[in-house]
């Protein structure tokens, strides 16, 4: 084991196209192992904006760790809000190189590299072999336990529209451009101008704002049909600084309406907001928009109305979505 470890070099690298291809390929191998619940291979958007540490055996990349610097929020049980933290997104070592201390080397190198910028290192794990991963993180790396996500199957699988919340890559924004230019899809926005131009030269700035530099104040995902693999709509929420409220957004492309995607998308959005510690979501909907009934059926209530809009609100603190999250550890 020591001979192998002596050959290994750990270093921090900037993201290049070559390194991106290697990291995506390694994550595809990780996905194929089926060792983590819900893990899928990375796309460019998953890796961009992170600090990247790699382990090399000669010229071969045999492991990686990447994560980002941020500020803690809703973590007062272990640290004051606003504490600088380094959030580890992924730590992976190729199977042939495991149990040789390489994961520990990667973590130690990253810890040293971020020590002057972060007071804590944080991570979450969905590894199926939880005993081994807890031993690694707690006993070998000296981390402390915060929370855990547990599950127990207690009934049959219900009939539910099979869509997922998908984090789009930059090149996927063609879909958003398409449905925002569709009059039928954007009819709900008629009172405010209808369709909205979204030219390609604006994609990068918008993407960075919503998906890279979101500051935990913005959340955005596509709705993806699990059966066809196609995109059917979008869900989002953001913090309105002026009114100090969280506003929701659910749009299903017109040709996919009437299939239950809107209701399921709204459920996924509320669940994501609850998991991120948000107490309530609101949406101001045009008074003649049929989506009002969708929100009411999802547990939203009318807070107030004007001649033009209805402000709807859902308290997430005791909602089915929050209860679901409470049965799991929060990511």
Shape verdict? globular
The fraction of residues assigned to DSSP E strands is 25-35%
Order of helices and strands: HEHHEEEHEHEHHEEEHEHEEH
Number of strands: 12
Spatial strand order of the main sheet? 1-2-3-4-5
Q: How many H/I helices?
A: 10
Based on helices, strands and strand pairing, what is the structural class? alpha+beta
What level of helicity do the residues show?
25-40%
Unreliable stretches (pLDDT < 50, length at least 5) are: 327-331
Average per-residue pLDDT, rounded, comes to 89
Distance between the termini: 34 Å
Radius of gyration: 22 Å
Assembly state: single chain
Give the helices and strands, then pairings.
Layout lengths: L1 H6 E6 L3 H17 L10 H4 L3 E7 L2 E12 L12 E10 L8 H13 L5 E4 L6 H11 L22 E4 L7 H7 L22 H10 L5 E8 L5 E10 L4 E8 L8 H15 L4 E7 L4 H7 L3 E5 L3 E7 L4 H7 L5
Parallel strand pairs: 4-5
Antiparallel strand pairs: 1-2, 2-3, 3-4, 6-7, 7-8, 8-9, 10-12, 11-12
Explain what you see.
By secondary structure, this protein is α+β, with helices and mostly antiparallel strands. The chain contains ten helices and twelve strands. The protein has helices spanning 2-7, 17-33, 44-47, 102-114, 130-140, 174-180, 203-212, 261-275, 291-297, 320-326; strands spanning 8-13, 51-57, 60-71, 84-93, 120-123, 163-166, 218-225, 231-240, 245-252, 280-286, 301-305, 309-315. The chain has a five-stranded mixed sheet. A four-stranded antiparallel sheet has the order 6-7-8-9, sandwiched between helices. Helix 8 (261-275) crosses helix 10. The chain starts with a helix and ends in a 5-residue tail after the last helix. Mean pLDDT is 89; it is low at 327-331.
């Amino acid at each position: 084991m020591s001979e192998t470890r002596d050959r290994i070099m750990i270093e921090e690298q900037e993201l290049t196209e070559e390194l991106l291809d290697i990291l995506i390929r390694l994550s595809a191998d990780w996905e194929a192992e089926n060792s983590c619940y819900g893990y899928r291979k990375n796309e460019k958007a998953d890796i961009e904006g992170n600090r990247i540490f790699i382990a090399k055996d000669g010229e071969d990349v045999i492991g990686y760790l990447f994560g980002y610097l941020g500020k803690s929020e809703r973590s007062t049980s272990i640290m004051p809000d606003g504490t600088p933290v380094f959030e580890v997104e992924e730590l992976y070592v190729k199977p042939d190189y495991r149990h040789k201390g390489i994961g520990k080397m990667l973590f130690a190198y990253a810890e040293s590299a971020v020590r002057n910028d972060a007071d804590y290192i944080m991570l979450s794990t969905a590894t199926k072999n939880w005993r081994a991963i807890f031993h690694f993180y707690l006993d070998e790396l000296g981390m402390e336990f915060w929370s855990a996500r547990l599950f127990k199957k207690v009934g049959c699988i219900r009939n539910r529209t099979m869509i997922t919340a998908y984090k789009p890559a930059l090149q996927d924004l063609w879909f958003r451009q398409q449905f925002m230019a569709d009059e039928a899809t954007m009819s709900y926005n008629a009172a405010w101008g209808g369709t909205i131009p979204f030219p390609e030269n604006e994609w990068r700035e918008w993407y960075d704002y919503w998906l890279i530099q979101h500051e935990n104040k913005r959340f955005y995902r596509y709705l993806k049909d699990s059966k066809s693999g196609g995109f059917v709509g979008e869900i989002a929420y953001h913090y309105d600084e002026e009114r100090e409220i969280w506003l929701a957004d659910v749009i299903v492309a017109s040709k996919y309406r009437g299939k239950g995607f809107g209701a399921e998308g709204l459920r996924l959005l509320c669940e994501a907001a609850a998991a991120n510690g948000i107490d309530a979501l609101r949406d101001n909907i045009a008074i003649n928009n049929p989506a009002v009934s969708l929100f009411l059926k999802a547990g939203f209530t009318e807070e107030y109305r004007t001649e033009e809009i209805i402000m709807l609100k859902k308290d997430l603190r005791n909602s089915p979505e929050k209860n679901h999250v409470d049965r799991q550890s929060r990511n």
